[in-house]
Amino acid sequence: MTLPDAALGAFFGYFSLWAVARLYRLVRKVEGMAEGDFKLLSGLGALFGWQSLPAIILLSSAVGAVVGIYMIVAKGHKRSVPIPFGPYLAGGGIATLFFGASLARLWFGA
Predict the structure, then answer these.
(1) Could you give the maximum distance between any two Cα atoms of the chain, in Å?
(2) Radius of gyration (Cα) for the chain, nearest Å?
């Protein structure tokens, strides 16, 4: 990985979640995501490069959605109680660490 890939990964990792959180705040008038999530994805983007960001976000979101739905349906978790996204981002980063090349080939067809 090159320095520009790491820099772009850090920038787009932070900016992508920041933009989603700001849009959510504009629509719902409440905070939907903490800044630690922005920083974590920024660090993962710097570590693995911008190419890994789609896979990390897709994996994190998919697993987080499945777990969140399970918690609401089976455990009676209130929808108004937030579920932290950071652990799912970390899990996406770990998956990228071990399966990053395969995930990049799936995503980009390279």
Answers:
(1) 46
(2) 15
Distance separating alpha carbons of residues 29 and 22, to the nearest angstrom? 10
Query: Residue 13 and residue 56: Cα distance in Å, rounded?
Result: 10
Token digits of residue 59? 């994996």
- Angstrom distance (rounded) from CA 32 to CA 36: 12
pTM (global) more than 0.85: yes
Lookup: tokens for 1: 């990985």
Model confidence pLDDT, tens digit, residues 45-98:
999 999 889 889 999 999 999 998 999 899 888 878 888 999 999 999 999 899
Q: Residues 6 or more apart from 88 whose CB is under 8 A from it?
A: 59, 60, 61, 63, 64, 67
Backbone phi, psi, residue 50, to 5°: -65, -25
> DSSP secondary structure string, 37-64?
HHHHHHHHHHHH-GGGHHHHHHHHHHHH
Residue 110: pLDDT above 70? no
Separation of alpha carbons 1 and 97, rounded Å: 13
